[in-house]
Amino acid sequence: MISEDKKVWGVHTQDDYLFLHKDVIAIGWKDFGDLKAIENTREAFKEHYAAVYPQSKKQAIANSAGMLYRFIYEVQAGDYIAVSYTHLRAHETKANL
Fold first, then answer.
1. Are 87 and 67 in contact (CB under 8 A)?
2. Could you tell me the pTM of the whole model?
3. For residue 11, what are the β-bridge partners?
4. With contact defined as beta carbons under 8 Å apart, do 87 and 17 qualify?
5. Measured between alpha carbons, how far is 85 from 11 in angstroms, rounded to an integer?
6. Residue 6, Cβ neighbours under 10 Å: how many?
7. Rounded to whole angstroms, how far apart are CA atoms 78 and 96?
8. What three-state secondary structure class fits 30?
9. Are 9 and 82 in contact, with CB atoms under 8 Å apart?
10. pLDDT tens-digit profile of 20-29?
11. Which helix (H) or strand (E) holds 84?
């Protein structure tokens, strides 16, 4: 049973090396840059995303920027991360931030 103060997060990956061999949970896109360098507001993440990926649709900007924001500012040590791999069904680990 999961504690009430812990959350479960889902992460999908195409490159599972870090998850399987280094016990690291990581997301992001190379062109987006350092997530900690962006002001910690959802609006700042959306503005940055739109600047980096100007071809993106409004809903895609909101979804992707929100996902990155939540990962960097809302995931807490001890939260559960369910990882979907390309060649495995699922793997679960605890966030160790």
1. no
2. 0.73
3. 83
4. no
5. 9
6. 13
7. 6
8. helix
9. yes
10. 788 777 776 7
11. strand 80-84
